Amino acid sequence: MLIVKKFGGTSVADKEKIFNVANRCAEDYKAGHDVIVVLSAMGKQTDYLLDLAREINPKAPKRELDMLLTTGEQTSVALMAMALHALGVPAISLNAFQVDMRTNSTYGNAKIKRIDTDRINRELEMRKVVIITGFQGVNRYEDYTTLGRGGSDTTAVAIASALHADKCEIYTDVDGVYTADPRIVADASKMSEITYDEMLELASLGAGVLHNRSVEMAKKYGVPLVVRSSLNNSEGTVVKEEVKMEKLAVRGVVSDKNTARISVIGLKDIPGVAFKLFNHLARYDINVDIILQSIGRDGTKDISFTVSKDNVDEAIEIIERHRTGSLQYQKIDVEKSVAKVSIVGAGMNTHAGVAAKMFEALYDVGVNIKMISTSEIRVTVLIDDEYVEKAVKAVHDKFALSEHH
Ligand code: ASP
Ligand code: MG
Questions:
Q1: How many Å lie between the centroid of ligand 1 and the Cα of residue 249?
Q2: At 187, is the secondary structure helix, strand, or coil?
Q3: Is the CB of 7 under 6 A from ligand 1?
Q4: C-alpha dihedral over 79, 239, 362, 290, to 10 degrees?
Q5: Which terminus in the chain has less CB density within 10 A, N or C?
Q6: CA dihedral sign of residues 214, 219, 222, 228
Q7: SS3 152
Q8: From ligand 2's centre to the CA of 306, what distance in Å?
């Protein structure tokens, strides 16, 4: 069996943890399996490197940032190979250059295009554990790129798919995917299975377990994922196409405080206004989330939407630049102390009244809803961020999520 095992930064944070991972890999290797290990940088190394860069130059060229950040993963793979050697297991570390893992040219947020499997296969044939740097790639200028924060998950899935691995295990410091953040809801329970679509919604909505591009890729190539803890042997959560629990309307509740609301007030009530507004933002890669447009009155309308907190200032700047040009509005109103609370479940579209039940839970605890957005398998509300914990608990309780898993 070919197994890809990915370990996050917390799982390789120090010598003891590195040996813990090495032992887990050695076990599979000794059982006769082919083992590929994908690693993140140790502990908070990536944050540390970013701080270092900021001290030198807050506007550091993105190419140089990637050059710097890739050293984090290079450190952890080399140390892991040394640990395996110390355990008497043949192993070799490879970086993105050595594998030949190609991405597009977008520094800091590159997308994987192609992975050469020759070198990896040759090393596996020589019965070595192959340890590969997560998060990095090489672009057509022969420069290093990185895949965006948390991108090692995506590396692991891409490798699992390129080599048709039998298993792709994502190890982290939690036991799997929970019905709510256990730090907020004490009796949140671990899901044994979840669909790609549900996981994708959860990952995009701020459940920090998996990089959302890794889930997208796993779905596209049908790579079954297992999310599990590197610290114990608990089974974890399997992410796949279809699951038995799907009949349950709601599977989990997530919240995200990294959001802000922008309202553009007094836009002209004519065709093309929404297009121009969101096109300006899209050109600067600013992702817009919940969108609400008021009905036209006296020839004007308002458009409200949410963006992540990191993008709010840039978004306002871009809109203001077009005030006297293509956008012609009266004023902008911004609210930063907001948060999203969402319920997710693949069975939701076949159950009536799911949204109403969520709104009732919020009403029960006196939480006002500012905006609402829905998809086939998700309902999201925007609320005051001070009520997030209260809201998540109330919704989790209302759907009795702890009892179903
Ligand atoms: N080390 C990178 C980060 O911290 C990539 C990863 O951990 O997946 O974002
Ligand atoms: Mg991660």
A1: 33
A2: coil
A3: no
A4: 80
A5: N
A6: positive
A7: helix
A8: 24
pTM for the whole structure = 0.86
In the sheet that holds 291-293, the strands lie side by side as: 291-293, 300-307, 252-268, 331-344, 378-384, 371-375
Locate the ligand 1 atom nearest the alpha carbon of residue 72 and give its number: 1
**Contact 46 CB / ligand 1 (< 6 Å):** yes
Residue-range domain boundaries for the chain? 2-172, 258-336, 339-403
pLDDT for 405 equals: 59
What's the CA-to-centroid distance between 100 and ligand 2, angstroms? 23
Task: Count each helix (H run) and each strand (E run) in the chain, helices first.
Answer: 12, 18
Task: Tell whether ligand 1 has an atom less than 6 A from the beta carbon of residue 195.
Answer: no
Cβ–ligand 1 distance for 44 under 6 Å, the answer no
Determine if ligand 1 sits within 6 Å of the CB of residue 161.
no
Q: Looking at ligand 1, which residue's alpha carbon is closest to its atom 5?
A: 150
**pLDDT of the residue at 403:** 74
Q: Which residues of the chain are under the pLDDT cut of 70?
A: 206, 245-247, 404-405
Tell me, what's the pLDDT at 11?
Answer: 96
Which pLDDT score, from 0 to 100, does residue 350 have? 80
Say which CATH architecture domain 339-403 belongs to.
2-Layer Sandwich (3.30)
**Is the shortest distance between the CB of 72 and ligand 1 below 6 Å?**
yes
Q: Which CATH class is domain 2-172?
A: alpha beta
215 CA distance to ligand 1 centroid (A)? 16
| Residue 174: C-alpha distances to residues 135, 158, 228, 251, 252 (Å) | 20, 23, 7, 18, 16
For position 246, what pLDDT does the model report? 56
CATH superfamily, region 258-336: ACT domain (3.30.70.260)
Residue nearest to atom 6 of ligand 1 (CA): 150
| Distance between CA atoms of residues 90 and 95, nearest Å | 17
